[in-house]
Structure formats: C-alpha cells, structure tokens
Give the backbone structure.
Amino acid sequence: MADLSDPPAPPAAPAHAFELPRLTSMLWHALPRFVEGVIAPVAVFYAAFVLLGLNGALVAAVTWVYGGIGWRLYRGHGVPGMLLLAALGVTVRAVLAAVTGSPVVYFLQPTLGTLLVSMTFLASVPMRRPLAQKIATDMVPMPEAFLRHERVHRFFLRISLLWSLVFLVNATISLWMLFHESIGTYLWVRTGLVAALGAAAATVSVLGFRRCLRHVNAEPAT
C-alpha cells in the first residue's frame, strides 16, 4: 500500500515538451568556431596579401586550413568531413586564383555557394521539409514528438524563409563589393556587414524559437 504521507508525484511533462539549452552556453560553444572559421581566415589572408602579395596570401590561406586539420590530428581529435571538404575547396580556389592572377576568382566561388544555399533554404519551404529544422537538430537534438508539433513545423518554415533572405542579401552584397571595391574593403566591410546580418538573424531565430517553446510546452499532454 502506498504511503499516504508521501507527496504526490509531479505531473508528467507532455511528450512534445522540450527545453532549450541556455543562450550563453550556446554562444560560448559557437564563438570559437566563428573566430576560427570567419574572423581568422580573413585576418590571415589580408595580412599575407599586404605583406606578400596575392600568391603569399593564397599560400597563407591554404596553410591556415591544413594547419587546423593538422592541429586536430595532433591533439587526437577527429576531423569533420565538412572541414576536409572546405580544405579541398580552398585548395582548388587558390590554384585557380594563382593561375589567373586574380583574387576575385578566389572569393567568387564561396559567394556563388552562398547564393546556392539561399536557394536551397527557399526550395525546402514548399517541399515542407524546412532546412532550418535539419540544421537545428544537428546542433541540438530534439525529440520527434516536439518536431512533429504543427507550431514547431510552422516556425521552422518561417525561419527557413528568413535565412534564405539572409543568404541572398549576403551574396548580393558580396558580389557587388567584389567587382566594385578593393580587396581590402571587400574583406573587412563585407565581413562586418555579413557578421552583423547573421547575428541579427540568429537573434531573431533564437528568440522566435524560445517563444515557440513557451507556447508548445504550455500545452497540456494529450
């Protein structure tokens, strides 16, 4: 017989409930990757470009990428497949830029890639398979019951549209500056604008997701 003096057990959480990790912990998790993948390559390329010219900058850019891979291997860490693909892409871009003698060639490919990413986000919306959801679940595992919720699905559709627009603006700014400004102006002004645009979109995404969470978690279990 149950002990009547025991306090009643708390009600079970709904199957669709989900708790988002603290925003500060996510930012600290993402900051080193942002510095390594966005800020440092620009600084390395530009410093070498000023001191050593185009070929020196290309060598420095390739060395930075493969140095990162070597450092991971030295520390016994696995090398992500995406990093290996990025290294291959940087190598091909550097060779093409060295052959043509134009730094524009080096930066044109990732800009066109950004445009392709924008179109991919956009195409995922009418297909009802929002790319934003796939990326979010890669970063933060979420229960299937939560992801099947209609409000959650609508949220990821809207966020996919938002990021499609962000990448489209990113590519447009990059292409215009690449053909109308100096490489120095392109590197720093474009990087700052793109970082600010991405930060604003990320803030909207996180705040919108938190709002969605409050509504979903407040619903009673069915």
